[in-house]
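hey can u run this one w/ manganese (II) ion bound, need the structure tokens asap thx
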Amino acid sequence: MLPALALAGAVPGAAVVALPTRPGDGDGPPRVLGQPPVEVAALLEREKAKGEAGEILTVPVEDRVLLLGTGDGGPAALRKAGAAIARRAKQQESLALDLRRLTLTDDSLLALAEGLLLGSYGFTLKPSAEPRPLTRITVVVAKPDALKAGLDRALAVIRAVASARDLVNTPPLQKNPVWLAAQARTLLKGLDVTVRDDAQLRDEGWGGVVAVGMGSSRPPRVVEASVDNRVGGVGPHVVLVGKGITFDTGGISIKPNDSMLTMKMDMGGAAAVLATLRAVADLKLPVKVTAIACAAENMPSGSAQRPGDVITQYGGTTVEVLNTDAEGRLVLADGIAYADQVLDADVIVDVATLTGAMPVALGKKIAGLFTNDDTLSGQLEKAAEASGERLWRMPLTPDYRRALESETADLRNIGDARLKLNGGSITAALFLQEFAGGRRWAHLDIAGPAWSGGDDEELTKGGTGYGVRLLTRWLEQLSATSARKRARAS
Ligand code: BES
Ligand code: MN
Ligand code: ZN
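ok here u go:
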């Protein structure tokens, strides 16, 4: 649940009012941007004051008026400030920010709203849990009408992020591939959604999804959904492929218990691509986007795949499965091959909690970006900067490719340790690249940022919804580029 966010032209009778401050000159105190709203008139009325000689009224201002540092006033600062004030006021029923003396753009409003609302996000299944007190946030600006469209855009993005978080945070008892497919249908109501069941997946040759799913009593699913708001059919077809392992035990190559504790997050990529599609539809971006969520539960059992099995991926590539815990690349390979061979994608972006090595390299807040296209890399880096969802480009080192050679199949699913090349995130990306058919492709390894160990600015403990803000921003930028191209052509 998220609080409601509204714009207003004047300060409402909110429980708590925040006024922005800016760093002052040198060591001097910060400047307060605006007049503290000491509502003396209301107080006099409420207290039935008479103004008689000796009458004393306290102005209860101290804990009702908060001075909120806004740093340089840019999007990153406002995102951080928004999260801080929302956490501070979380026990209040309502909060107002008097920002009439700040210049807000659509982008800074988006960032502020992300901080306010995503920082207030919570997830619980406890029936006894008290409803969150903070239900209403008002942003007071000089010209509310001028920011109306900006607020709608912000709410569309934020709602999508929150639904991705909900999907990730749902415990694995409820969450299984069939459940995920049903949730996708609900989330994407009104869009074109197809769900392939296990029988169809077997018939059509989705060998990776079938192999990973066959150890579980809860069968795999692939969700395919799309939206096409292109004007006159002009513009690229973007295919987003998400890893949807609803729980990753490792399979027969089972993980130690501690490594398994957070593995309900292993569908964070699928959640991100589905939620991004929701945002794209709500924002009516003039692009064609297809989301493919490859959902399976990776379990050990008498019907599970074994290390040493050779499987056939979508499109016919054979893979020797030497470690059943390297399952993400198996389900993604099918989705990427389908995007190449059937959907005729112009750009493929896959999103996956793929390797434990990725957060070792980049830490918990930065995703790894692997791509065969420098332009795409630049676009995604720009979107990362603007959205606050950071990424860092990693190399697709061609000479590591030999670590994936198998004697019995076209590929092996983990790098050959005997070669001592290491680079597990890179070999995983090189494996995926084999299925992109030379198309423009990017792989986001979100094993680090998909999950937050604690509250941290706009993130709350648990699933972060990483990828939704980044991808939505990128698709917005792509839309703007195609709009410019259209304008030039006409
Ligand atoms: N889902 C994991 C990767 C992961 C680890 C995501 C930690 C988030 C946090 C993935 O399926 C996996 O198990 N990868 C293995 C690959 C290895 C067997 C080559 C890994 O990283 O250990
Ligand atoms: Mn795994
Ligand atoms: Zn996994």
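The CA atoms of residues 22 and 28 lie 11 Å apart. anyway lmk if its weird
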